[in-house]
Automatic annotation (TrEMBL), chain A:
Keyword annotations from UniProtKB, A to Z: Amino-acid transport, ATP-binding, Nucleotide-binding, Transport
Residues in ABC transporter domain copies: 7-239
Protein name in UniProt: ABC transporter ATP-binding protein
GO molecular function: ATP binding; ATP hydrolysis activity; branched-chain amino acid transmembrane transporter activity
The keyword Nucleotidyltransferase appears for this protein: no
Taxon lineage: Bacteria, Pseudomonadati, Pseudomonadota, Alphaproteobacteria, Hyphomicrobiales
InterPro entries in the record: AAA+_ATPase, ABC_branched_ATPase_LivF/BraG, ABC_transporter-like_ATP-bd, ABC_transporter-like_CS, BCAA_Transport_ATP-bd_LivF, P-loop_NTPase
Keyword Transport: yes
Top-level taxon in the UniProt lineage: Bacteria
PANTHER family given in the database record: HIGH-AFFINITY BRANCHED-CHAIN AMINO ACID TRANSPORT ATP-BINDING PROTEIN LIVF
UniProtKB/TrEMBL annotation, chain B:
Descriptive protein name: Branched-chain amino acid ABC transporter permease LivH
One of the Pfam families matching this protein, by short name: BPD_transp_2
The family this protein is said to belong to: Belongs to the binding-protein-dependent transport system permease family. LivHM subfamily.
Parts of the chain that traverse the membrane: 12-35, 42-59, 65-90, 102-121, 158-178, 208-229, 285-303
Keywords: Amino-acid transport, Cell inner membrane, Cell membrane, Membrane, Transmembrane, Transmembrane helix, Transport
GO biological process terms held by the UniProt record: D-alanine transmembrane transport; L-alanine transport; L-isoleucine import across plasma membrane
Location of this chain's protein in the cell: Cell membrane
Bilayer topology term: Multi-pass membrane protein
Listed CDD domains: TM_PBP1_LivH_like
Principal location class: membrane
Length: 242, 311
């Protein structure tokens, strides 16, 4: 018998008004895995990410976390179940310092762990330690991305949702960030669900992957399987993205 | 010169009251981007609640000093709590159901809530002025003989001292609350990005409610001060005081907490000095003209932040 996934998405349909964004999505994320979702712009990847967090809520289908149906819970209650998201566009609080952004990340976490968690993210991203007092809005793109991930980690998540952490960043920074994700998964057993356009890096990193086209999952498999598939290569790797 | 100092003291007193009300406007604007036009009437409700409590407790000028102080503290705390319930209710009934609706909708319900509160108080309490005998009288007389005794003595009443001290203490406490506590941080987070705040587990609706509660309780303090200072209130005092405090918030930079305090002080001073040196009739014109001039040259207000932000 297969063990129950940490996160189970079944037949999820999401609409923006009358426009359909997700047309029945099924995804499993098991404890300890890195799972990636790749697809073109507008395929619905970020919508799935936000639907898992209840904003917007799915119109049909179900989302189960640790065996509990969370489909219709309000966002802040879902996020209190040790799920954290580093969202699309990073969404750093621009007029708060780096430290305050991190404190916000720990807003609903047990305060007893605050200092240990702070040390952990500063070890992972030493740059943030140097910039503690700086306002979030004045950081560079790469620093903001690090801060967004660090802020999510401050909530001590069991499941980390990462939406396009490589977007708009220099290759060296992308490597740093992907290394950090791999390390968190390896050493802390953190489960990661990663949305990416940077398909090559994401599939290299992930244990398993899904391909999304126009609001549905068209392919799934292990990272290396997907990397070797002709249609993946053509659409998302050498062939460029369009 | 004595005359100048006298006006300064009067202006700071009036400005304190405006500042306390202005904080409610600026915080609500900061967090949900709307002008809560019912806030002036919440101030009026606060003044009425304070008056009812004072009468119910039987406080008069004859009450022994220590007892008087204790009773007034009790009135202050109860008035803050009861007015906060009104502020919470207005948000719950008139604004929350319209969240996510088009921008003008809550503005219209705000005006509706304002009229509803005025009419409710008018009907339940009567339309006539409600006087209160002065509870705290006396004060200091400064520089009476120092200037040769040739006429004008600067008076600073105990009441004025009380208003200024209470305002300074509350504003300092409030600034600390917003800048240093996790509750204040959650409020600032909701102000900057509500969706992200909810992604971090913050209950945004609750945080917004708390903002209304805080604004209303500060307005209640202003209401009690107004009542004690002027000794007369009616159901309509919220309108002009509300418009003035709103002007103060815009002058200081709407959304900015220190801006609301500074704006309140300035509006109080402008009004008082204008009435003191020019004409009493045109004091409102003076205050609004200065607002217009400041906004022409500094559209974001004195301490507001410019719209452009690197994100």
């Amino acid at each position: 018998m297969e063990r129950e996934p940490l996160l189970k998405v079944r037949g999820v349909e999401t609409y923006y008004g009358k426009i359909v964004a997700l047309r029945g999505v099924d995804i499993d994320v098991h404890e300890g895995e890195i799972v990636t979702l790749i697809g073109a712009n507008g395929a619905g990847k970020s919508t799935l990410m936000m639907t898992i967090c209840g904003s917007p809520q799915a119109r049909n289908g179900s989302i189960t976390y640790l065996g509990e149906d969370i489909t219709n819970l309000p966002t802040h209650e879902i996020m209190r179940k040790d799920i954290a998201q580093s969202p699309e566009g990073r969404r750093i609080f621009p007029r708060m310092s780096v430290m305050e952004n991190l404190q916000m990340g720990a807003a609903v976490a047990d305060p007893a762990h605050f200092h240990a968690d702070l040390e952990r993210v500063f070890t992972l991203f030493p740059r943030l330690k140097e910039r503690q007092e700086q306002r979030g809005g004045t950081l560079s793109g790469g620093e903001q991305q690090m801060l967004a991930i660090a802020r999510a980690l401050m909530g001590r998540p069991r499941l980390l949702l990462l939406d396009e952490p490589s977007l708009g960043l220099a290759p060296l920074i992308v490597k740093q960030i992907f290394d950090a994700i791999a390390e968190l998964n390896r050493t802390d057993g953190l489960t990661v669900f990663l949305v990416e356009q940077n398909a090559y890096h994401a599939l290299k990193l992930a244990h398993r992957g899904y391909v999304m086209v126009n609001g549905t999952i068209t392919l799934s498999g292990t990272g290396s399987e997907l990397l070797s598939r002709e249609e993946v290569k053509a659409a998302y790797l050498e062939g460029g993205r369009h | 010169m004595e005359y100048f100092f006298q006006q300064l003291i009067n202006g700071v007193t009036l400005g304190s009251i405006y500042g306390l009300i202005a904080i409610g406007y600026t915080m609500v604007y900061g967090i949900i981007g709307m002008i809560n036009f019912a806030h002036g009437d919440i101030f009026m409700v606060g003044a009425f609640i304070a008056l009812i409590l004072i009468v119910a407790l039987g406080i008069t000028a004859a009450t022994p000093l220590l007892l008087l102080i204790l009773a007034l503290v009790l009135v202050l705390v109860l008035a803050m709590a009861l007015t906060a319930i009104w502020g919470w209710t207005v948000e719950r009934v008139a604004y929350r159901p319209l969240r996510g609706s088009f921008r003008l909708a809550p503005l219209i319900t705000a005006i509706g809530a304002s009229i509803a509160l005025q009419n409710f108080v008018q009907i339940s309490q009567g339309a006539r002025n409600k006087p209160l005998q002065p509870l705290i009288s006396g004060g200091f007389s400064l520089s009476d003989s120092a200037s040769g005794g040739a006429g004008f003595a600067v008076q600073i009443s105990y009441m004025q001292i009380l208003i200024i001290v209470v305002t300074v203490v509350l504003m300092a406490g409030f600034t600390l609350l917003i800048n240093k506590t996790s509750l204040g941080r959650a409020q600032r987070a909701c102000e900057q990005d509500r969706k992200m705040a909810s992604l971090l587990g913050i209950n945004v609706d609750r945080t917004i409610s708390l903002t209304f509660v805080m604004g209303a309780s500060l307005a209640a303090v202003a209401g009690l001060m107004f009542l004690l200072y002027y000794g007369v209130i009616d159901f309509y005092i919220g309108f002009l005081a509300g418009v003035k405090a709103f002007t103060a918030a815009v002058l200081g930079g709407i959304g900015s907490l220190p801006g609301a305090m500074l704006g309140g002080l300035l509006i109080g001073l402008i009004e008082t000095f204008w009435s003191g040196y020019f004409s009493l009739e045109y004091k409102d014109v003076a205050a609004f003209s200065i607002l217009a001039i400041v906004l022409i040259f500094m559209p974001e207000g004195l301490l507001g932040r410019p719209e452009v932000e690197k994100v």
